[in-house]
């Protein structure tokens, strides 16, 4: 069956009419809006025009730095010198100036005295090996007896069982005296000290000779410390 619509109920026929009505309403709204804005501006008495706006430029004055004037320095006050005028009738005490030359005692030089400068004595050369070596009085046998008789074994070394051979060097002067003893091979501080003591206490030796002249000779002596079983 075909559905039939009545002409009065057909909305397609009134579509154009409603479009015109809407267009008229939109135009009327725009017109009323323009008229209302113009009316408010005229009542307030404010009419803005681009030609009436004038921009004033702010002029900034140029300021120059003030010149500081330096005041001149104060003038020094000069005091006038006061001169004391002495009358001619006033008596002035006279002072006598005595120079150093008048007070000095003059020394009369009769003749030139020669100045004698003594030259320092040259230390005698110490020889290591000479033609005739220095010798203990009585020879090496007496030297061994001297050591055995005068050496005192330190008790602390005996208790700890310390023994050994201390090598001592010394210089036999040209007069046979013993000087500069020193330990060159130590064993123990107590044994070293005892060896130096015994060597320093030795009597004068027979000095060594080189080409028939008595000279100083360095001598090396071993001092043995040995505990008896």
Secondary structure: elements and pairs:
Blueprint: H1 15-44, H2 100-103, E1 126-127, H3 140-150, H4 155-160, E2 164-172, E3 178-185, H5 189-200, E4 208-210, E5 213-225
Parallel strand pairs: 1-5
Antiparallel strand pairs: 2-3, 2-5, 4-5
Could you explain how this protein is built, in words?
This protein has 229 residues and is α+β, with helices and mostly antiparallel strands. The chain has a domain at 126-225: TolA/TonB C-terminal domain. It is 28% helix and 15% strand. It has five helices and five strands; from the N terminus they run ααβααββαββ. Strands 1, 2, 3, 4 and 5 form a five-stranded mixed β-sheet that branches. 9% of the residues are buried.
Short overview:
By secondary structure, the protein is α+β, with helices and mostly antiparallel strands. The protein has 5 helices and 5 strands, in the order ααβααββαββ.
**Structural class by SSE content:** alpha+beta
Distance between the termini: 158 Å
Oligomer: single chain
CATH level 3 topology of the domain at 126-225: TolA/TonB C-terminal domain
The share of residues in extended strands comes to: 15-25%
Unreliable spans are 39-57
| Overall 3D shape | elongated
Write down the overall mean pLDDT: 75
């Amino acid at each position: 069956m075909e559905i039939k619509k009545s002409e009065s109920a057909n909305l397609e026929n009134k579509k154009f009419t409603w479009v015109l009505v809407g267009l008229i309403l939109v135009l009327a709204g725009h017109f009323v809006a323009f008229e209302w804005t113009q009316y408010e501006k005229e009542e307030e008495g404010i009419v803005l025009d681009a030609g009436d706006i004038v921009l004033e430029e702010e002029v900034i004055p140029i300021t120059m730095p003030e010149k500081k004037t330096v005041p001149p320095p104060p003038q020094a006050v000069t005091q006038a010198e006061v001169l004391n005028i002495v009358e001619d009738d006033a008596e002035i005490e006279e002072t006598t100036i005595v120079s150093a030359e008048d007070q000095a005692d003059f020394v009369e030089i009769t003749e030139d005295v020669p100045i004698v400068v003594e030259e320092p004595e040259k230390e005698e050369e110490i020889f290591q090996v000479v033609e005739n070596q220095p010798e203990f009085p009585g020879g090496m046998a007496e030297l061994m007896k001297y050591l055995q008789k005068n050496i005192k074994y330190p008790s602390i070394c005996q208790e700890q069982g310390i023994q050994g051979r201390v090598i001592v060097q010394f210089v036999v002067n040209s007069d046979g005296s013993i000087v500069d003893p020193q330990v060159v091979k130590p064993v123990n501080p107590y044994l070293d000290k005892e060896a130096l003591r015994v060597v320093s206490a030795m009597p004068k030796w027979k000095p060594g000779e080189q080409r028939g002249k008595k000279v100083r000779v360095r001598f090396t002596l071993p001092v043995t410390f040995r505990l008896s079983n």
